[in-house]
Design goal:
471 residues; alpha/beta
């Protein structure tokens, strides 16, 4: 047989192979039918699950759907050659072990193959004993890589959970959604006010995902002009426009099986929205200037502080894209809805600033912590983080106090002494609750009064500290 040795390694019995059908998955990429059929029969006889692809497009489809442990790739292929195919396979499945096979080996070809991600090299004619030895070695490496990834995934998960600080009910709900949605490839829409930690949630989802060691690539859709955003996401081919003297890989391809995080998705132009929808639904992108789509595997996470349903209703955002993004929805709560988390947030944020600034600060006094829990925090955790950084820079003692923070931060706080009087304590709690509802309504006091079941005049009296009557 052409380019296939007749010297075989001893095959296992059919009964043994049947008992062990999960020894590993091998993708065989060769356009010569005789060679492909012979290797297919031999490898299946050795207990491997084998899929054959005769050209690069079929190979790329198989890499996505079959998810091989090992790919045996001939260098001489019709159309796209094996080395270019290798590069694309590494983008889609960077953890797949690739062995290049050729009858025309040179040092330069071997070096190029290893630089592009190949793990081994085999000359034709193929000797079965040598092939089997190399495959078993690559499978051992593959198992070690998987074990290492599992350990790293666990560490990533622990680390990411620590960055989402807070024991409040709202934060427990966020972490529960991350735990459930993280180990999937589903799209997630993260909503919330500016400064609430939407990117932290996205990174935690990635860390809890199936490929935590794959790239996490973030882009701010509002910070890039519309005509450049498409190029950043999907890439371009040489000659696509003036100055495009070489191909550029977009984020979707560069992420491999990792994550593309689209921050401020509500600012994306309509034309780019349509192409993003295609990328998510068809799992392929069309680089600028290209004539053929390229398959992609990246997971998409998106975030916005806008009301996307309202944007859909006013035709500013595509309804079909919204529903595609909103498979799982996670809302990051504003800090004013979880003030009980502030005593946990302060030391966590403070430790980073102390380390970065090289100053000795041991903590924040209890009276100041109490004041911080009462501040309005319209800028949410980001504002708290900035206030702590300023306090570390300007503070002169090992313990930070109220004088180390901006004076206007506490201007709206009613810091009356705690009282045992039930009537006064109840009135104080009511006033705090009313203020929070007004904030949640964006300052609309009529809407706040409606939600609270109060007359508007009663709401004003409660905000001023007077005891109003309910309607």
């Amino acid at each position: 047989m052409k380019d296939v040795s007749t010297r075989r390694a001893p095959s296992r019995s059919a009964e043994t192979a049947e008992r062990d059908p999960t020894k590993g998955r091998i993708l065989l990429i060769d356009d010569e039918d005789v060679i492909a059929a012979t290797l297919h029969e031999f490898l299946e006889g050795e207990g491997y699950e084998v899929k054959v692809a005769g050209d690069a497009p079929a190979a790329l489809r198989a890499v996505q759907g079959f998810d091989p442990d090992i790919a045996l790739c001939d260098i001489q292929l019709p159309g796209l050659d094996g080395l270019d195919l290798l590069e694309r396979m590494m983008l889609l499945r960077p953890d797949t072990m690739v062995m290049m096979i050729t009858a025309y080996a040179t040092v330069e070809t071997a070096v190029t193959a290893f630089r592009r991600g190949a793990q081994d090299y085999l000359m034709k004619p193929v000797i079965f004993d040598e092939l089997l030895t190399k495959i078993e070695r690559l499978m051992s490496v593959r198992r070690l890589v998987r074990e290492n990834q599992a350990l790293r995934r666990q560490l990533h998960g622990e680390h990411r959970s620590e960055t989402l600080v807070g024991s409040s009910r709202a934060m427990r709900a966020v972490r529960d959604l991350i735990r459930k949605a993280g180990p999937t490839r589903s799209t997630v829409l993260i909503t919330g006010e500016s400064g609430t930690g939407k990117e932290l949630v996205a990174r935690a989802l990635h860390g809890a995902g199936l490929d935590p060691d794959a790239p996490f690539l973030a882009i701010n859709c509002a910070a890039i002009p519309d005509d450049l955003l498409e190029n950043q996401l999907f890439g371009h081919v040489r000659g696509a426009f003036t100055g495009a003297d070489r191909d550029q890989t977009g984020l979707f391809l560069a992420a491999g099986r990792g994550t593309v995080f689209l921050d401020e998705i509500g600012e994306m132009a309509a034309q780019t929205q349509a192409k993003l929808l295609r990328a998510i639904e068809a799992r392929e992108v069309l680089p600028v200037g290209a004539t053929r789509p390229v398959p992609v595997q990246a997971r998409v996470l998106a975030a916005t502080n806008q009301d996307l349903p309202a944007a859909v209703a006013s035709n500013r955002f595509r309804a079909d894209l919204f529903y595609r993004l909103n498979v799982v929805a996670i809302r990051t709560p504003p800090l004013r809805e979880r003030p009980e988390d502030i005593p946990e947030l302060v030391p966590a944020l403070l430790a980073r600033h102390v380390r970065d600034l090289g100053k000795r600060v041991d903590g924040v006094d209890s009276a100041t912590i109490r004041m911080l829990t009462k501040a309005p925090w319209r800028g949410n955790v980001r504002e708290l983080d900035n206030a702590l950084e300023r306090a570390v820079i300007l503070g002169e003692g090992p313990i930070l106090g109220t004088d180390d923070f901006p004076s206007d931060l506490f201007a709206e706080i009613d810091d009356d002494e705690e009282t045992d009087d039930l009537r006064l304590a109840t009135a104080k709690f009511e006033r705090l609750h009313v203020r929070r509802v007004v904030d949640r309504c964006g300052g609309d006091k009529r809407e706040a009064a409606r939600r609270l079941g109060l007359a508007l005049s009663s709401l004003y009296r409660k905000l001023e500290g007077e005891d109003g009557e309910r309607d």
